[in-house]
């Protein structure tokens, strides 16, 4: 039977994959190959990934079950890093949209976006780590 507790585990993989793939496309574009398609992939993957991060956060905050008392510290860390990840991802997506609309993608502001993207990916990995600890060590569903 379907339960709302299952929505977060189903949704959470999208922002991880999309943001990380967008970050890889950005690295390849900036440092290895100036392929315009990579820049477009980066833009769309990170933008859609940021929106899906927003959805993943809210599914985790409002549609998951209870956490056992011994997992409270890990859950609090997971939630804090999730909030920071969503904020950083949305700020970066807003910056990327601004740069695209103003046709400033090739200015030095691209390095600010790259720094924000690096920060977002770091936060994303920390969020995923603590989520994995909740699932695999404390059996939180």
Radius of gyration: 16 Å
| Share of residues in helices | over 70%
Q: pLDDT below 50 for ≥5 consecutive residues: which ranges? A: none
Approximate strand percentage: under 5%
The name CATH uses for the topology is: Four Helix Bundle (Hemerythrin (Met), subunit A)
Largest sheet: none
In whole angstroms, the N-to-C terminal distance is: 15 Å
**Mean of residue pLDDT values:** 94
Number of strands: 0
From the spread of the alpha carbons, the general shape counts as elongated
Give an overview in words.
Helices cover 78% and strands 0% of the residues. With 141 residues, the chain is mostly helical. It has one domain: Up-down Bundle (Four Helix Bundle (Hemerythrin (Met), subunit A)). Helix 3 packs antiparallel against helix 4 and helix 4 packs antiparallel against helix 5. The model has no long low-confidence stretch (mean pLDDT 94).
Question: What does this entry show, briefly?
Answer:
This protein has helices spanning 7-11, 13-32, 36-62, 72-101, 109-136. The chain is an all-alpha fold and 141 residues long.
Which features would summarize this protein structure in a list?
141 residues, mainly alpha, Four Helix Bundle (Hemerythrin (Met), subunit A), 5 helices, 78% helix
Give me the secondary-structure topology.
Layout: H1 7-11, H2 13-32, H3 36-62, H4 72-101, H5 109-136
Helix pairs in contact: 2-3, 2-5, 3-4, 4-5
